[in-house]
Design brief:
Layout: E1 4-6, H1 9-21, H2 28-37, E2 42-45, E3 50-55, E4 62-69, H3 75-88, E5 93-95, H4 101-109, E6 113-123, H5 125-131, E7 139-142, H6 148-158, H7 167-176, E8 178-184, E9 187-197, E10 200-208, H8 217-231, E11 236-242, H9 246-254, E12 258-270
Parallel strand pairs: 4-5, 10-11
Antiparallel strand pairs: 1-2, 2-3, 3-4, 5-12, 6-11, 6-12, 7-8, 8-9, 9-10
Helix pairs in contact: 5-8
């Protein structure tokens, strides 16, 4: 069994190309700051395996394996090290990254079990813009950190306890992603987040107040993200949505997204 240690700045620089490809951090500087804040969250094994960990949600005692690198047969060791750190730092359980196929099977062989399942969708930004008409009566504007309280309340109406954001997540979102809010007569009725990395745009979050649905808010937000992606030179868009969320699937398919790959999953195991 390999020995583990905290990653050094030299390790992080060597790790950066893989982290960038995995869309874990938008820059090496972000990775360095993340590691410096709590060095135990980025671990390196003596044989070169590595794992990046972070709290899943501020209100939950769940530790997330953000990304891990290593041969499939090493996954048991990676999961064991993640569980050990979870116990050491007061977490009750550990969850995997979003996985499918052989990668998911490797985590399952390491003792983890599927907690939730999602579909992945991709699209060409210009196709999305062309598929969704402009919506009258929906005002979009850039979100700011002063909107955080309203977005926290909105998030709680749209997502269950596992998925909803808390203050720490919004602090991260406003630091790393583009945030756009939709306003109606009652105030903020929806928002989106996205990030462009290289030639790809990831739609990270789409939320619409249940009382404001079927009024074009979601379409306006998705179209806005697609237009931004096109302006930034992105050639593709991607997103994930829960298997049971048939409403969002219908929206994305109408916007010319297509489902790709297998069913993805997040797996979990007690610490």
């Amino acid at each position: 069994m390999s020995t583990w240690r905290d990653a050094t700045h030299q390790d992080l620089a060597a790790m950066w190309p893989a982290a960038r490809s995995a869309h874990v951090f938008s820059s090496l500087a972000q990775l360095l700051v993340f590691s410096d804040e709590e060095p135990w969250r980025v671990r390196i094994a003596s044989d070169g395996a590595a794992v990046v960990l972070r709290r899943w949600r501020g209100h939950l005692d769940t530790l997330s394996i953000r990304v891990a690198w290593g041969a499939p047969w090493r996954m048991h060791d990676i999961v064991d090290e993640s569980r050990r750190l979870a116990r050491e730092h007061g977490f009750a359980d550990v969850i995997s990254p979003l996985l499918a196929g052989p990668a998911l099977e490797a985590y399952e062989r390491a003792g983890m079990h599927t907690q939730c399942s999602l579909y992945a969708y991709t699209a060409v930004p210009s196709d999305v813009v062309g598929a969704l008409p402009e919506v009258d009566g929906v005002t979009l504007r850039p979100g700011t950190i002063t909107d955080a309280s309203a977005l926290l309340a909105l998030d709680a109406k749209c997502f269950n306890d596992f998925w909803r954001y808390g203050p720490p997540e919004f602090e991260t979102v406003f630091g790393w992603e583009r945030v756009v809010v939709a306003e109606g007569a009652t105030g903020i009725v929806g928002y989106s987040t996205c990030a462009v990395s290289g030639s790809s745009c990831t739609l990270g979050r789409l939320a619409v107040d249940p009382d404001a649905r079927r009024q074009g808010v979601a379409s306006a937000l998705v179209r806005d993200v697609a237009a931004y992606a096109r302006e930034q030179g992105a050639l593709g868009m991607s997103l994930c949505t829960q298997v049971e969320n048939v409403g969002s699937q219908a929206l994305y398919e109408a916007a010319r997204f297509r489902r790709v790959g297998d069913v993805y999953a997040i797996a979990a195991v007690p610490a």
